[in-house]
């Protein structure tokens, strides 16, 4: 099996279908930008810059990509518009490679981290609880014993939704009454998980962002309490972002990375939007690896992010 052998035909089809709106958006704009042109010149690059910015790649990342393409054009002297898509694909793939985005071979956890603790953060409505449920399903399918902690104690709907997912995936959910201290829920979850030799613990947290100081204090408290049970927890702080919100996802990433030490990203709802370019910009600007992407409502539609397949899906093999 080659390095990308684990990315099977079914996953590829799901990825292609999920990114079809973004691909169509980018290619239709790209086609218009190079119409009637044969050579990649300053005018074409100006048009390409507009294509990327309006595809939610982000201004700073777009300028970085344009500079790279300018360097290629200067070095190769004559580059045709037919070659532009291939060059664009190559430069974006290289950009993602530089930003700590490593392709994972399956839903694995480090052998020396048991339980492996994931604290999930993100604003309400981004698909946070659904992502947790799908993650629990994937880890369980990989043979891991999973526990969920309902530490978003401020919304009854959040706890109820997590309990529903727990039942659907057949994993235990630790909860307390509404309004309980979220840190207390996290503490109970880790205690129960360690007593029952769980492999993975996923903690849901409140999605409030109206007061960054309160958010920071709350997340810090949850982390500190978890360390009393598992000294190096949490091992992963996963920020869930809604890809369909485009540039608003950038702002959320900025707020949450300021509030806590996010070290992994999940970008959801890419199947219903033409704004999938946001994955490229967020990965580049925040230097945090995109670990998962959401491509649909199905329980299998949360995929491990594979930069090579992602770029190939957008720009062709």
Could you give a short description of this structure?
By secondary structure, the protein is α/β, with parallel strands linked by helices. The chain contains 12 helices and 8 strands. It starts with 8 loop residues before the first helix and ends with a helix.
Strands, helices and their partners?
Layout: H1 9-18, H2 20-34, H3 42-54, H4 59-76, H5 84-97, E1 116-121, H6 128-141, E2 146-150, H7 156-169, E3 173-174, H8 182-195, E4 200-204, H9 212-227, E5 236-242, H10 247-259, E6 264-268, H11 278-286, E7 290-294, E8 302-304, H12 307-315
Parallel strand pairs: 1-4, 1-5, 2-3, 2-4, 5-6, 6-7
Antiparallel strand pairs: 7-8
Helix pairs in contact: 2-3, 3-4, 4-5, 4-11, 5-12, 6-7, 8-9, 9-10, 10-11
Query: Gyration radius, to the nearest Å?
Result: 21 Å
Task: Provide the succession of SSEs.
Answer: HHHHHEHEHEHEHEHEHEEH
DSSP helix fraction? 40-55%
Tally of helical runs? 12
Mean of all residue-level pLDDT scores: 89
Q: What's the story with the biggest beta sheet?
A: 8 strands, mixed
* Low-pLDDT segments, ≥5 res: 1-5
Placed side by side, the strands forming the largest sheet appear as 3-2-4-1-5-6-7-8
The SS-based structural class is alpha/beta
* Shape designation: elongated
Termini separation comes to 19 Å
Folded structure, characterized:
The protein has helices at residues 9-18, 20-34, 42-54, 59-76, 84-97, 128-141, 156-169, 182-195, 212-227, 247-259, 278-286, 307-315; strands at residues 116-121, 146-150, 173-174, 200-204, 236-242, 264-268, 290-294, 302-304. By secondary structure, it is an alpha/beta fold. It has an 8-stranded mixed β-sheet with strand order 3-2-4-1-5-6-7-8, sandwiched between helices. It is elongated.
